């Protein structure tokens, strides 16, 4: 049996053939306007085309037809959040826990061990004597982005414990406040309630004009700063602008095909005068640094960055960071470093629409594709942000 128009809509979308996807999607809902899956698939394709209002309308139709289906609710959330309709968007965002394949926030065996009360999701009310477990439930970038809510939660719950991956522990531990962290469920103490870190914006009623400041006081370890200061001063020429580069995210990310690019696409940076490039790239794309040819010197630090603690220390030695939508963008922004983020045409919801800046990170500039796959304009904007900023040269008197 040949695929239906609804199926072809999703197939073509995944192939990046968005015009064809929309044609199939519209034909599917015209032929069967009572099929929730058809409206859902069309809504996803329209989101990728940045027809956000139309995408929201499709997902609302799908939700009316299939109120218990999590997919349309979650896609509706993304459209609402992207378009700054956060009050409703946060409510719909909670449907992510019902998506197929999404594991429970806390393993059932752990909840059973800690008793019935531990199963209670925190509703934002004070827990003056009890322990609250906050779980860093999403990717590294999400954890960094939402960690800004830890002081707000700690003001309501004195006994706060953060469950996170070992990779994120250095970041959480670098925050003032001395938050207790656990990286293994067996380490978790008894707790009265729990919440996902990514649920805190909704619990605190965050709006685009009320985003808390990013990670106040986040600092790299002084010993690592000293070591990396000496290392970079020995590797890089004096008086050169230092620009950190990250051109690819984790290949396992669902949208990596759209958000990542080859190092070669950043060629406009390769000929900048008095500029030294510093690769912070990790993962398979790191190998591209070995094939770099350009007049601007490039130092590949990827193999030496053993943890985010090292990355934090290096970021403080740079004048600017240029990166795709990955954890380094969040880390650099959270630390207050000038950062140019390259965004695909249909960005993740957190970057909103049509903005050159973001309420999440005041020192970050956003450089967007004008059409799917068109990086040239975004890269030119990032070059202008780097070369036009009021940068101090690397022969910094404070360190020489």
From TrEMBL:
InterPro entries per record: Glyco_trans_9, TPR-like_helical_dom_sf
Highest taxon of the lineage: Bacteria
A UniProt-annotated Pfam family: Glyco_transf_9
Signal peptide: none
Gene Ontology MF term list: glycosyltransferase activity
SUPFAM superfamilies: TPR-like, UDP-Glycosyltransferase/glycogen phosphorylase
Record key words, sorted: Plasmid
Record's protein name: TPR repeat protein
Organism: Azospirillum baldaniorum
Lineage of source species: Bacteria, Pseudomonadati, Pseudomonadota, Alphaproteobacteria, Rhodospirillales
